[in-house]
Amino acid sequence: MPEAYVTLATNDGYAIGALVLGHSLHSVGTTRDLCILITPQVSQAIKSMLEGVFNKVEVVNVMDSNDTAHLSLLNRPELGVTFTKLHAWKLTCYSKCVFLDADILAVKNSDDLFQQPELSACCDIGWPDCFNSGMFVFVPNMDTYGALLKHAQTVGSFDGGDQGVLNTFFPNWNRVSFVYNMVASATYTYLPAYKQYGSNAKLVHFLGTMKPWQHRYDSQAGQVETSPGYQHLSPFLNSWWAIYVRLVQPGVP
Ligand code: UDP
Ligand code: MN
């Protein structure tokens, strides 16, 4: 059975991020499939572009009334996006997957992650006993999916998002190096470590409210106009925009 990188987009903004992520994975020479979960809110034009980059574009619907497990969650609307991420465990056509948030950029090949067990991830910078759920290695399985849904319903999420649910479900998670989910955000404060190790990053995660596609780009200079607090991220933001301008933007309606 094949293995795949899996991402998620519930709207066109995140789908643009996913397109750049997909191109970046190809450019670092991944040998694995690319799969994206989208909801019907993603426009047809962007969906067609996703089909050009991803091997599989799976439409999932948070309010799918044919799904009994799903129905029982309907009284928990705040878990909407969380639930959508959990759909990834239903991708049983793959033997193993690496989930990546749509706001991640691949800068080096990370295919060795597929040698890691479920659930492997990196420490969260806010509470390092927890893992950050922007990147995790998992094994699609319907039993796990059912158990996760039940867990979401009974235990719930301590942060209202997927990270809270997944951390209490997988308390004995396996830690992999921070280079597989290097958080690039304005609030990251350990700058000496970033200067020492930042160039080893394999997957860069633009966590936080300001996503790469929300920065201003000076097309004349071919550079991102860096906002205060983001200067240290300009090399990665420029890499993100270089892919966007060359490979994604020409197709955006
Ligand atoms: N996401 C989405 N639509 C939304 C919010 C989130 O598709 O409205 C997906 C997307 O893949 C995104 C991930 O869920 O990368 C997690 O959200 P985000 O990256 O914004 O959270 P952060 O990493 O900043 O905590
Ligand atoms: Mn993210």
Automatic annotation (TrEMBL):
<keyword id="KW-0808">Transferase</keyword>
<keyword id="KW-0325">Glycoprotein</keyword>
<keyword id="KW-0464">Manganese</keyword>
<dbReference type="GO" id="GO:0005978">
    <property type="term" value="P:glycogen biosynthetic process"/>
</dbReference>
<protein>
    <recommendedName>
        <fullName>glycogenin glucosyltransferase</fullName>
        <ecNumber>2.4.1.186</ecNumber>
    </recommendedName>
</protein>
<keyword id="KW-0320">Glycogen biosynthesis</keyword>
<dbReference type="GO" id="GO:0005737">
    <property type="term" value="C:cytoplasm"/>
</dbReference>
<comment type="function">
    <text>Self-glucosylating initiator of glycogen synthesis. It catalyzes the formation of a short alpha (1,4)-glucosyl chain covalently attached via a glucose 1-O-tyrosyl linkage to internal tyrosine residues and these chains act as primers for the elongation reaction catalyzed by glycogen synthase.</text>
</comment>
<comment type="similarity">
    <text>Belongs to the glycosyltransferase 8 family. Glycogenin subfamily.</text>
</comment>
<dbReference type="GO" id="GO:0008466">
    <property type="term" value="F:glycogenin glucosyltransferase activity"/>
</dbReference>
<keyword id="KW-0963">Cytoplasm</keyword>
<keyword id="KW-0479">Metal-binding</keyword>
<dbReference type="GO" id="GO:0046872">
    <property type="term" value="F:metal ion binding"/>
</dbReference>
